[in-house]
Amino acid sequence: MAAVPFRVQAGMRIRGVTGVTAVRKIAGLALSAALLLPAAAAAEDVREAEHWTEREFAVMAEIGRAPSYADYRDARRDWPAAGEAAVIRNGEPLFIPEGGSAELEVRVPERGRYRLQMEYLPSERSSAAVELTLRVDGEFPFREAAGIPLYRKWIDDPSSRKTDGRGNDVRPPQIEAREWLRADLSSHTGEVFEFALDEGVHTLTVGSPFQELHIREIALTPIPDIPSYEEYLRRHAGKADAAGGVRIQGERAAYKNDPVIVPLEDRSTPATEPNRAPKISLNKIGGDRWSRPGQEIVWTFRAPESGFYEIRIKARQHYAKGFYSIRRLKLDGEVPFREAEQIAFPYGSRWKFVVPGAADGKPFKFYLEEGEHTLSLTAVSGEFGDVFGQVRESIGELNEIYRKLLMVLGATPDTLRDYHIPEILPDVMASIGEQREILDELYRRLLTREGFSRGELEPLRRTAEVLDEFVRHPYDIAARFIAFKNDIAALSNWLAEASASPLDIDYIDIAPPGSPLPEADASWWELILFNLRMFVASFTENFDVIERHAEDERPVTVWVMTGREQAQVLNELIQSAYTPATGRKVNLQLVSQESLLASVAAKNTADVVLGVSGEIPVDYALRGALVDLSQFPDAGEVLARFHESALVPLRFQGGVYGLPETMSYPMMFYRKDILAELGLAPPGTWNEVLAALPALQKNNLEILIETGLQTGSDAMGAFLMFLYQHGGELYRDGGMAVGIDSAEGMEAFKFWTDLYRNYGLPVNFNTANRFRTGEAPLVISDFSLYNMLSVMAPEIKGLWGMLPVPGTVREDGSVDRSVGASGLAAVMFRTAKEKEAAWEFMKWWTSAETQIEFARRIESILGASARYPTANLDAMGQMQWSGEEWSRLQEQLRWVKGVPQVPGGYLVPRNINNAFRKVAVSKSQGAREALLMYTRIINNELTQKRKEFGLPTAEDGFASREGGGRFE
């Protein structure tokens, strides 16, 4: 891509801009952006673009060589602070495409420590913070420079409704304020980076791996001289105390840098403002949504007069016992004095006032001129940032130690055997000793800090103690190896809890110094009366009803079987888009699976039900409860929105009994760092999987494929993958019998069970945990695992990827990657009074525009863990996946096949699980014997169900009846 015009000042100039079109990024935080490789053309198989190269390994090694920021900073503490800035201002903004970079030369005016400030505009396509990469003179100065967050600006939608039809406050949607933003580059822990640069010319390479980015200004700025509180008072000597004050309601923030920070309700006490209990009032902000370092809330207020004020924050930190939350306080965008960089909020079960003050207990006084101001609180790690960073690095080292021990000991070592670990793994023993010293020193350091006790630090102490035992008695490592794994997990959980800093804010008083504090919480008597009133209201208030209208308004009644957050977002979309466009109002209510069944039996159902699981539509259609949607004149146009595989479970005998809402399917997840260490590429076929197994198992590593032994899971997804790839079908003769006993089905079942019976794949496991620890560097699972790993495994961020599943090589040499799909659907009940109106709602709900807006709002509120797997193909392509992620999902989507639903089909997953257990777990039967036995059981049930509903059966000698009549 040609260079974009960009006016250069202070000795800087653009050397070039490069970009890739979306299918190439690498591990190591945002390591992929560092490669900047040309995009592969749209190939028939994206796998060809994923074969690892020596260059990719070299980049991973480069990231590994870079020091942590703490080490980089500590090694340069004696460098002088720079006194002169170097700035690039815009001619035309510089555009960096997704996966692209810009290389600039800068002439640094003097040797010293600088901050790097940027004025930027993120892409509109995503709600996530931008992940920036920065190289200095061709290298990452520290590891954190491979993933620098640039936040966005989010506000409450001013056009949203304030209350719903029942008088409850409605949580406002978050919309992005599209404006140029300015920020100092900082870490994910909230610490502003300092770059040590010698005088002369340096090269800066700025990349944006996952999003488009516009940059208007880049500046190397001097480090600000923040005064102490005493100096601050001297600078404002002679100023008087203010006489008046102002109250800022916490939920009325001017803006936030993360959309998950939204107004919340608190009905635990009458003391929160405002309070209309039992009605829902949005009367606080924060909670565990405001817990990650770097998250900021900004409020605006007007100082009634010039003078000194106290800042009193009514807050509650009742989330992490034994810990306290830390916030950085800014006024008008600046930290007023050093002591305001760390305001501590201790643990407590009730609301209390936190008044920032000195160690002697005297509140700080803040000088404000009369007029408009901003006040911001930013979550930071504060004085514990370095400690938590060291613990995080130690956990990484401990996981590495565990994996290397695993390669020698295996998952279940012989406790009576001496494995001679010191002789075989001397480097590991040295690392164990080093980590013992680090963790022990960190434990002792934290024990001296206020807010921590021995009980809260137990995981840290215990892990250090176990490492000490390993050093003193290495022959006991095998006996304590499994416990060591659990200790690492406990330490990881401790770190997550300790480094998070959730906090509730009710309101903030900007008050005259010395004025009396109001009561922070209600008295015990007030609490008793309040709880009594709430108890009485529990018999009259139905909080499952989201919206209710009078019958004479002819509303469409819609039930939702998902969560309250999803229902609230849907209601907002209905009020802002559907009702204004159609004039139709909607009754919206939350229901459960159990209540749906009871309602159908009582013939008291909604017009439309959303979020039903895939097996329900045909099951209810058999009983005459659902409307065949194919009867509507524009049904063909609507059904064209979806992949055919999503429609398969909703079809039966020519009818279509639902519209797909979501669709998901298996993908392969792989640990890039571990495969790189072993010199392996992600396998593209099952032959390659079998070839890689010896290398993995030699090192006691695993491949995980769903087996159905975990609670709430079944093995159908895995079996269908092998069945379809071998050319088999789940049913034959129009659903009269299963087709799993065909030659293709037998071959698929035997190959699948042989993986466990002969090749030793594990049958019972926790997928996410084994993947994050590295025990299983290859996992085949539903792509929703991506959402889980994005949230629960930050320590391996960038060290893993997602690819299409391995395929089966066909006779012609092509590779079949077929998999089955699953999802949720929207259905219309026959009891709907106005079916045309219900159909119009279903069309609106499943349209690309509505699905895109719903998905964006849900992810903006709940984060990446709630990324919505819409079934609408146009909408799916516009979800907040990066180009790389979407290209891989799209490649797998080409091979997705639907799973038919038939009468009695509920017995199929159950008996596939039973057959698998007989062959692969208990090993009491052979593959052919078990499959034939359970095939007979399934076919008997299918026959009985078809007889029950008056359908032709295999016993009648009928052939397949495609396109048969609908149920009346």
Written account of the structure:
Helix content is 32%, strand content 21%. With 968 residues, the protein is an alpha+beta fold. It folds into 4 domains: 13-222, Sandwich (Jelly Rolls), CATH 2.60.120.260; 229-381 and 501-529, Jelly Rolls (Sandwich), CATH 2.60.120.260; 385-499; 666-822 and 898-956, D-Maltodextrin-Binding Protein, domain 2 (3-Layer(aba) Sandwich). Strands 14, 16, 17, 19, 22, 23 and 25 form a 7-stranded antiparallel sheet that branches. A hairpin with a 5-residue loop joins strand 39 and strand 40 (815-816). Helix 7 packs antiparallel against helix 8. It is globular and about 100 Å long.
- The number of helices is 27
- Named at the architecture level, the CATH assignment of the largest domain is 3-Layer(aba) Sandwich
Major sheet summary line: 7 strands, antiparallel
Beta content comes to: 15-25%
Briefly note the CATH topology name of the largest domain: D-Maltodextrin-Binding Protein, domain 2
Give the rounded overall mean pLDDT: 85
Give the oligomer, counting copies of the same chain as homo and different chains as hetero: single chain
CATH class of the largest domain: Alpha Beta
Helix content: 25-40%
Low-confidence stretches: 1-53, 958-968
- Helix/strand-derived class? alpha+beta
Overall shape:
globular
Give the beta-strand count. 43
How is the secondary structure organized here?
Elements: E1 13-18, H1 31-35, H2 54-65, H3 69-74, E2 86-88, E3 94-96, E4 100-108, E5 112-122, E6 130-136, E7 148-150, E8 154-156, E9 174-176, E10 181-184, E11 195-197, E12 200-208, E13 213-222, H4 229-235, E14 246-249, E15 255-256, E16 263-265, E17 282-287, E18 296-303, E19 307-316, E20 325-331, E21 343-345, E22 352-354, E23 366-368, E24 371-379, H5 385-409, H6 421-424, H7 426-447, H8 458-472, H9 481-499, E25 503-511, H10 524-537, E26 545-547, E27 556-560, H11 564-582, E28 586-590, H12 593-601, E29 608-613, H13 616-622, H14 635-639, H15 644-647, E30 651-652, E31 655-656, E32 659-660, E33 666-671, H16 672-678, H17 686-698, E34 703-705, H18 716-725, E35 731-732, E36 737-738, H19 743-757, H20 767-773, E37 778-782, H21 785-792, E38 800-803, E39 808-809, E40 815-816, E41 819-820, E42 824-828, H22 835-845, H23 848-862, H24 873-876, H25 883-893, E43 896-897, H26 907-921, H27 927-948
Parallel strand pairs: 27-28, 27-29, 34-37, 41-43
Antiparallel strand pairs: 1-4, 2-13, 3-13, 4-12, 5-10, 5-11, 5-13, 6-7, 6-12, 8-9, 14-25, 15-18, 16-17, 17-25, 18-24, 19-22, 19-23, 19-25, 20-21, 20-24, 26-28, 29-42, 30-31, 32-42, 33-37, 33-38, 35-36, 39-40
